[in-house]
Amino acid sequence: MMNLAVQDPAIPTWVPLAVIGLGLAVPLAFAAVPIARAARLPVRAALAAGGPRGAVVRATWLPLAARNALRRPGRLVPTLALMITGGALVMTAAGVQRGLARTADRVEDARRYQLEVRTAAPLDERRLAAVRATPGVRAVEAWSVAPAARGPVARTHPDGGHGAFVLAAPPADGTTLAQFPLRAGRWLRPDDDDAVVLSDRGAPIGARIELTVDGRVSAWTVVGVVDELAGRSAFVTPAAFRRVTGQAGPTLLRIAADPGALPGVERALDGVPVIYALPIHGLHSIIADHVAMVVRAVVALAAVVAAVGLLGLAIAMGVSVAERTGELGVMRAIGASDRRLVAVVVGEAMAIGAVAVIAALALTAPLTALVVDRVAVIGQPPFALSPPAMIGWSLAALIGSALASLAPARRAIRMSVRAALAEA
Predict the structure, then answer these.
(1) Which of 240, 272, 304 is where one domain is finished?
(2) Residue 59: inside a domain, yes or no?
(3) DSSP structure string for 221-281
(4) Distance from first CA to last CA of the chain, Å, rounded?
């Protein structure tokens, strides 16, 4: 799935040690504060307190469930933090996936051809004529490309392939097969000599930049910026390309053809050293598959975080019911029904879930914008939110909160009035 070979599948020794250490240290660290506070409490004060009762929330304008949830803010905050984090991650991942899926669709829309072939040496007219004469080939555009760098340093991935920056020259009579959206400035003109159109916003329009090709540095004026979508190039005119590189023939073919024509194209280029041959539908699949892989990983992580949050909520609700045994007993004594007691406990849990949902929704838009800005590796993905993910997470959080409170609610209604009042 990740298109890489794992050299050593063994887990480093420090990983299980760190997990064990954190598993032992974190609970002790959280428990140390209340234990230290209780140890410093005088015996008389401890006996007079009659057990933990929580803070009294005097904001009477709040619903009863919300006031109950706020009785123990120190217990509430960690649970809320986990639920908010999980929800924000799920909805952000879904929004980024939606934006990148639109970008993958735009990749095919901008490339009106089916096959891209880059060769290691320039092609002569005989080869070009053979490709054009292949049955099923509708159009062929011959481009010239050469490895380049912005400034003296070339930045690329370790494989030297994807992510590489190239100097590219379209055909002299223009291009109809590659229609990259213009984001600023203008496209190249036939009489341009030192003009360059960039595929990123690395420099403003009118700026002078330096490009390095084969160790030679040349100066250019930025006249435009395009959204190349899955590529990093500096576009110049064919004359300017020949002046800088000394390369006479094309090294990149963009071919519009029927699916059955591809074997014929392969025969026409037999014997030519090819760097890569990329079907455009394959490029779409690569982008979509990589995005799906990342999104699945993020959603799985978010699900674990949210599950831990809901587990913490269930524990917190159980402790809350135990602390309020006397209060619940008084409610039963004055006529509260089982349904009313269940509503109090479940309502408190759902109030916590509602706060987590609202906070996660509020964080989703800025987080999505931040991630979209950071993952602009195949063109700037459009900002997008995912309403299905937002609605689905909201319902899941509320339902999960209600389910997490069922066991404490059952304990509350099974308690006899006499036993409950005895603990008051």
Answers:
(1) 272
(2) yes
(3) EEEEEE--SS-EEEE--HHHHHHHH---S--EEEEEE-GGGHHHHHHHTTTS-EEEEEEHH
(4) 60
Q: What is the pTM of this model?
A: 0.66
Residues 336 and 226 in one domain: no
Give the C-alpha separation, 58 to 39, whole Å.
29
Q: What letters, b where the CB count within 10 A reaches 16 and e where it falls short, cover 261-274?
A: bbebbeebbeeeee
- What are the Cα distances from residue 176, in Å, to 172, 198, 254, 419? 12, 18, 10, 84
Q: Calculate Rg over the CA atoms of the chain.
A: 32
215 and 144 together in one domain: yes
Same domain, 234 and 304: no
Residues with Cβ within 8 Å of residue 411, at least 6 apart in sequence:
318, 321
> From first to last of its 424 residues, what are the pLDDT tens digits of the chain?
455 666 777 888 898 899 899 888 888 887 888 788 878 878 777 666 555 455 455 555 455 555 566 666 667 788 888 888 888 888 888 888 787 777 777 777 788 888 899 998 899 889 899 999 999 999 999 999 998 888 665 555 554 454 578 899 999 888 889 888 888 899 999 899 899 999 876 788 999 999 988 888 899 999 999 888 777 889 999 999 999 998 878 999 999 998 888 888 888 988 889 898 888 877 767 766 766 777 778 778 888 888 888 888 888 778 777 777 767 777 777 777 878 888 888 888 888 888 889 999 999 989 888 887 766 555 556 778 889 889 988 998 889 888 888 887 787 777 766 666 665 5
**Structural contact between residues 112 and 254, judged by C-beta atoms closer than 8 angstroms:** no
Task: Judge if 349 and 207 occupy the same domain.
Answer: no
Residues 264 and 228 occupy one common structural domain: yes
Residue 244 lies in a domain: yes
Task: For residue 5, tell me if it sits in a domain.
Answer: no
Instruction: Please indicate, yes or no, if residue 130 is contained in any of the structural domains.
Output: yes
> Quick one: 178 and 240 in the same domain?
yes
Q: Which residues contact 66 (CB under 8 A, 6 or more apart)?
A: 351
Q: Which domain holds residue 305?
A: 54-107+286-422
On whether both 131 and 88 belong to a single domain, the answer is: no
For residue 317, which amino acid is it? M
∠ CA 267-280-247, nearest 5°, is 65
Q: Calculate the dihedral angle through the C-alpha atoms of 417, 419, 423, 424, rounding to the nearest 10 degrees.
A: 10
Q: Does residue 175 contact residue 141 with C-beta atoms inside 8 Å?
A: yes
Q: Last residue of some domain: 243, 272, 301?
A: 272
Structural domain total, the chain: 2
Check whether residue 409 and residue 344 sit in a common domain: yes
